[in-house]
Amino acid sequence: MHVLVSYAVTGAVCLALEQGLRALAGHQVVSSVTARRLTHALMGPVFMGCWPLFSATPTTQEALLAASVPLLVTLKFALIGFGILNDDFTVRMLCRHGDRTEILYGPVQYGIIFTTATALYFQSPLAVVCLMNLCVGDVMAAILGARYGKTRWPLPVGNPKTILGSVAFLVSSFPASWLMLHTMGLVLPSMHPLPTTAQLGVVSTAAALVEALSPSKLDNITVFLSTLFIYHTFITA
């Protein structure tokens, strides 16, 4: 498939998902909270699911072209967050408290991480693990931790995150990463499954702990950076 066709299909699929979730929220089929969480959880796997449309050995130009898909969305969110572009519906859908500047933390950070991971690690296991931790683990920690979590982490002082949320992060991000890696064929047949699975478990556990101890406005960034570090330490060392 020609690279421009791959790019167009990827962009169209991601746009269709975003517009579909907007429509569901707009028609009150789902709440704005649910739409926000679905956007956070689904956009990444859907985007990565389009990566095989590109060549198996992508060039730098292909990686940058693919990275421009989340980049364009991120630029739109940044314009909304800074008040340059008016989009009240997006603010209601993506912001917990209706403050447009919230977009500059969650959605914009999310987009920057996706753009960076795609540009630097396109079609690599590292990119998949980093992004699945962010998409699946972070969302499940927020949902289950906020709803059912009662015991909070003692540090740092005033930490609103719960131990149950961290467990939810681990038990969701670990199998999600494993499944996405195998689905995309990014686990080499020569790799012994048990050590590889154990290493992936270490990465997911470390990311869950970092998420638990990070400020809420910065946990997207800290999860991404910690996953990069731990992955290089335990898997590619």
Automatic annotation (TrEMBL):
GO terms for biological process: phosphatidic acid biosynthetic process. This is Dolichol kinase. Keywords: Membrane, Transmembrane, Transmembrane helix. GO terms for cellular component: endoplasmic reticulum membrane. One of its GO terms (molecular function) is ATP-dependent diacylglycerol kinase activity. The chain crosses the membrane at residues 63-82, 103-120, 126-146, 167-188.
